[in-house]
């Protein structure tokens, strides 16, 4: 689904300063070589299986299915991966690629800290240096993850410029990379940024849908009727969708963060509220003001708190292959509590956005239908924040 | 007539970057007049973008100061229109792709032509993406200025072949080599982007110098009074005196 310069329809591309082009060309060449190299593939598979704990389970949520009294619900348990989220799939791939390219340092951006922790983990494993950029606001909100990254040997740099959140961390990471192209690889955490990142990250996350397909065929002998995943930049969603894109009868549903509602300014639902633009190396949809300045966005979920969306999602949205819906903070928190009480699974607040949409549509579907919901991460990191949201003043 | 090219005919050019609206447009006007009176040949006017990923912290802060007043592209266009009554030297707009894209590429360039803007620098448009912009720039007679950094010779030559106006290269150990390549392969002027004017050989391989943060540093320190400080930029003035 990629053509010249990494276009997905009109989206994607390489909108970066000339100073970064050499590095992008070098990365693309290396990736094109190693993705077909049997030794690389074997080494990565070993890491994914032995270290990260793949394949992740496709769990039949029996109580949830009974309770909703509609379609059968399966949960794809990316929360059971090492480091507690899907992020590790991409990071192990990119870290191994960087190592093969002779790089000694991994640079990463992080919002809530999950991708930062995953990158710090891979760097520790592979004996690489690691620098993680994190908005100063987020370093305060996610102090425990900052400690984790440091424990793993990473240097965490608080970013104070702009709105001091994920968007600014991405900008800072890009700048740092420009200054250390010889030795460093920018381990981008989502299916965004300039080509070839959206393709590389998608390929490393596509293991999710590859497994879902195989596991469901084993359990049910057929494909699902819908796959639901949350979308910030969109890496777990594209990973969950990818091997179903050509199966036209499988609905692909991405759940964006509506924050306090898509009719408010406190939202991060890019495909509902954004317009076409160019930022962070790609053409896609972005939340922006009338003058083309990127808008500050808000969501209870720091992982979905990004003003853009990956170019392949923008394309799936354009051609109506993907359905994109907006889920509010309240709906996500409700789903967070629901899954904890019903299935004994505490999902990440990001993943709870996907669960929330399942709660809406599953009861309306007939019992012979099957829905897969990707639980992209575990929710331990969110417990204190959700407690505060509900009025209990708990701090980590 | 290509106004940008003319500047390089008989001297090494001094190209000065100023953020529009930092801290307000009146200061920008005074600053432009001050640098011209000291000998600047081309002014680059930065249209603020709040997330300038290609620039450092100092320029981002400058853009953010300018945006405090909700400065729009239309206000900047009107500002330049008035400026053009007095100011005759070439002017270049420098900004990010999204500002132009959001305004409408063709509407933006038509407005540029109307107010006699002579060049455009888009910091996040590399060679690979310029097809969307360059043909329209040419239609309206505006030079889309290219940056060159150390790269395989084939890439540098491709950039040179398609470049308009002049090219610039950041001050790195490869800058001399890049300038030599530009001169071997074209008649384009090659400008060095640097704020360390002192280190630049006056008779070096470059056709001019582009200073990015010297003025911004003044704006950061002195705000609306910074135009009075130009005469303290001794290195810049020395360069201007000796450059011919």
Task: Please describe what this structure looks like.
The complex is a heterodimer of chains A (396) and B (244). Chain A is α/β, with parallel strands linked by helices and 396 residues long. The model of chain A has no long low-confidence stretch (mean pLDDT 95). Chain A has two domains: 160 residues, 3-Layer(aba) Sandwich (Rossmann fold), CATH 3.40.50.1100; 215 residues, Rossmann fold, CATH 3.40.50.1100. Chain A is globular. With 244 residues, chain B is an alpha/beta fold. Chain B has a domain of 168 residues: Aldolase class I (TIM Barrel, Alpha-Beta Barrel), CATH 3.20.20.70. Chain B is built from eleven helices and nine strands.
Number of alpha- plus pi-helical segments of chain A: 16
| CATH architecture grouping of the domain at 12-147 and 208-239 in chain B | Alpha-Beta Barrel
The pLDDT mean of chain A sits at 95
* Structural class by helix and strand composition of chain B: alpha/beta
- First CA to last CA of chain B: what distance? 24 Å
Overall number of strands of chain B: 9
What is the average of the pLDDT values of chain B? 91
Number of strands of chain A: 14
| Helicity of chain A, as a percent range | 40-55%
Question: Beta fraction of the residues of chain A?
Answer: 15-25%
Number of structurally distinct domains of chain A: 2
Count of DSSP-assigned helices of chain B: 11
Could you tell me the strand content of chain B as a percent range? 15-25%
Radius of gyration of chain B: 17 Å
Assigned CATH superfamily of the domain at 12-147 and 208-239 in chain B? Aldolase class I
Structural class of chain A: alpha/beta
- From the spread of the alpha carbons, the general shape of chain B counts as globular
- Cross-sheet strand order for the largest sheet of chain B: 5-4-3-2-1-9-8-7-6
């Amino acid at each position: 689904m990629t053509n010249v310069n990494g276009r997905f329809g009109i989206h994607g591309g390489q909108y970066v300063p000339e100073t970064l082009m050499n590095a992008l060309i070098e990365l693309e060449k290396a990736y094109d070589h190693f993705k077909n190299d049997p030794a690389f593939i074997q080494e990565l598979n070993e890491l994914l299986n032995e270290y990260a704990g793949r394949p992740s389970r496709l769990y039949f949520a029996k109580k949830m299915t009974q309770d909703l009294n509609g379609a059968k619900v399966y949960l794809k348990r990316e929360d059971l991966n090492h480091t507690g989220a899907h992020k590790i799939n991409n990071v192990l791939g990119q870290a191994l690629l960087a190592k093969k390219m002779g790089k000694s340092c991994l640079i990463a951006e992080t919002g809530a800290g999950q991708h930062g922790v995953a990158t710090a983990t891979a760097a520790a494993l592979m004996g690489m240096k690691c620098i993680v950029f994190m908005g100063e606001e987020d370093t305060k909100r996610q102090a425990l993850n900052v400690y984790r990254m440091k424990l793993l040997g990473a240097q965490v740099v608080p970013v104070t410029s702009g709105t001091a959140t994920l968007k600014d961390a991405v900008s800072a990471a890009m700048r740092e990379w420009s200054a250390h192209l010889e030795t460093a690889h920018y381990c981008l955490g989502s299916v965004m940024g300039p080509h070839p990142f959206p393709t590389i990250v998608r390929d490393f996350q596509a293991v999710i849908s590859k497994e879902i397909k195989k596991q469901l065929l084993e359990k049910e002998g057929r494909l699902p009727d819908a796959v639901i995943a949350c979308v910030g930049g969109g890496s777990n969603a594209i990973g969950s969708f990818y091997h179903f894109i050509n199966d036209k009868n499988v609905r692909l549903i991405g759940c964006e963060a509506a924050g306090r509602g898509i009719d408010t300014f406190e939202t991060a639902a890019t495909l509902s509220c954004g317009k076409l633009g160019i930022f962070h190396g790609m053409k896609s949809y972005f939340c922006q003001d009338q003058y083309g300045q990127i808008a500050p966005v808000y969501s209870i979920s720091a992982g979905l708190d990004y003003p853009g969306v990956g170019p392949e999602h923008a394309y799936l949205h354009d051609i109506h292959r993907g359905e994109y819906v907006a889920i509010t903070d309240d709906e996500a928190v409700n789903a967070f509590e629901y899954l904890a009480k019903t299935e004994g699974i505490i999902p990440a607040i990001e993943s709870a956005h996907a669960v929330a949409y399942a709660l809406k549509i599953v009861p309306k579907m007939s019992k012979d239908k099957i829905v897969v919901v990707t639980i992209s991460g575990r929710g331990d990191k969110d417990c204190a924040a959700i407690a505060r949201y509900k009025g209990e003043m708990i701090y980590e | 007539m290509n106004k940008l090219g003319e500047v390089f005919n008989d001297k090494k050019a001094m190209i000065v970057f100023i953020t529009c609206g930092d801290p307000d447009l009146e200061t920008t006007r005074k600053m432009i007049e001050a640098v011209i009176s000291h000998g600047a040949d081309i002014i680059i006017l930065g249209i603020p973008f709040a997330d300038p990923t290609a620039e450092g912290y100092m320029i981002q802060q400058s853009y953010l100061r300018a945006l405090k007043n909700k400065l729009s592209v239309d206000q900047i266009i009107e500002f330049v229109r008035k400026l053009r009554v007095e100011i005759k030297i070439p002017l270049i707009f420098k900004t990010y792709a999204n500002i132009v894209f959001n305004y409408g590429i063709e509407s933006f360039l038509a407005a540029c032509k109307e107010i006699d803007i002579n060049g455009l620098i888009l910091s996040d448009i590399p060679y690979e993406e310029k097809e969307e912009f360059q043909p329209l720039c040419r239609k309206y007679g505006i030079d889309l200025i290219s940056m060159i950094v150390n790269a395989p010779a084939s890439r540098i030559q491709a950039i040179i072949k398609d470049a308009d106006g002049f090219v610039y290269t950041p001050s790195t150990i490869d800058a001399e080599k890049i300038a030599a390549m530009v001169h071997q392969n074209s008649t384009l002027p090659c400008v060095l982007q640097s704020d360390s004017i002192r280190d630049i050989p006056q008779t070096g391989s470059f056709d001019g110098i582009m200073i990015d943060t010297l003025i911004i540093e003044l704006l950061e320190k002195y705000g609306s009074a910074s135009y009075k400080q130009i005469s303290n930029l001794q290195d810049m003035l020395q360069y201007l005196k000796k450059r011919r």
